Amino acid sequence: MIQITMPLGFLGTVYREIRQALVDMGEMFGLLNQPAEITDKAEAPTLAVKGGAIRFEDVKFGYDASRPILKGVSFEVPAGRTLALVGPSGSGKSTIGRLLFRFYDVREGAVKIDGQDLRDITQHSLHQAIGVVPQDTVLFNDTVLYNIAYGRAGASREEIEAAAKAAKIHDFIISLPEGYETKVGERGLKLSGGEKQRVGIARTILKNPPILLLDEATSALDTQTERDIQDSLREMGQGRTVISIAHRLSTIADADEILVLDAGQIVERGRHDELLAKGGRYAAMWARQASDMQTGA
Ligand code: ATP
């Protein structure tokens, strides 16, 4: 990704925030280029967040007109609640994330936050309201301090350390020879996957967005580290509206609603126990994953 290696800051905060969004989303969704044609309306207002309720209203979308991807998706995540998206590869989970970020406009229907259509507000204010925690956090070749501070331009040292403490990475950082000044990234200290993710969580805690978009780990290993990360993500989700793209069903049992997607349609919806009792698609996915875990597949 060329953008990551470019020097930061020279175009100011707006550019930096857009770039952060692109880096996070790029990492999350494999987007290398920002799609063209998404522009703000003349004199568009900023998003007025009242709690961060998200609504998809009969959304139809395809990357090209000849191939529909989402075929009429409707759901609502009330402010402060958690929605989990599950379904086979290619079913449209990440596409929902991209539309929430308005990387593309819907072809029919609408996406709204607190009643405001995403097409009517500025993209900058939208991106400020959403924190993205990808599976694999991108680190810049800079200090760990810089890497966390990236969450919010102008944050104080105290705020950065408070975010690191909340993400349970502070003690690790101060154990490094140069503490917060330690260089990380490809040309610096290589952090483990879990440490990188904690830096990403600290970055997002510092940003303090009302809405979180989480892309959960695909790995089937149920290690202590992963459980700890899950706990941190859950803690960070408190009081925020969360959409979680889940690959492992064990991590979403406490979501307020689970949507099961297949080929761009919602084929089941409900809470974990309701869906298990129903004995349908979700229950079958659950049974399959449980047996995979047992056989170590
Ligand atoms: P996974 O679990 O594998 O990440 P997903 O459910 O997140 O899958 P999406 O990434 O939303 O699936 O993809 C849905 C469909 O859209 C797929 O058929 C995919 O090939 C297609 N698609 C995704 N991105 C693009 C793109 N940029 N251009 C064209 N088609 C795309």
Question: Could you tell me the radius of gyration in angstroms?
Answer: 19 Å
- Strand and helix order: HHEEEHEEHEHHHHEHEEEHH
Give the integer mean of the pLDDT values: 85
Specify the overall morphology: globular
Main-sheet strand order equals 6-7-8-3-9-10
* Largest sheet data: 6 strands, mixed
* Structure class: alpha/beta
Estimate the helix proportion, in percent. Answer: 25-40%
Number of strands: 10
**Tally of individual helices:** 11
Transmembrane segments: 1-15
Domain ABC transporter: 54-288
Protein name: ABC transporter ATP-binding protein/permease
Subcellular location: Cell membrane
Annotation keywords:
single chain; 297 residues; alpha/beta; 6-stranded mixed beta sheet; 4-stranded antiparallel beta sheet; 10 strands; 37% helix; disordered N terminus; binds adenosine-5'-triphosphate
Report a brief summary of the structure.
This protein has 297 residues and is α/β, with parallel strands linked by helices.
Please outline the helices and strands:
Layout: H1 2-5, H2 12-29, E1 54-61, E2 70-77, E3 82-86, H3 93-100, E4 108-113, E5 116-117, H4 123-129, E6 130-133, H5 144-149, H6 157-166, H7 170-175, H8 193-207, E7 211-215, H9 224-237, E8 241-245, E9 257-262, E10 265-270, H10 272-278, H11 281-295
Parallel strand pairs: 3-8, 3-9, 6-7, 7-8
Antiparallel strand pairs: 1-2, 1-4, 4-5, 9-10
Helix pairs in contact: 6-8, 8-9, 10-11
Bound molecules: adenosine-5'-triphosphate.
The site of adenosine-5'-triphosphate has 10 residues, from α3.
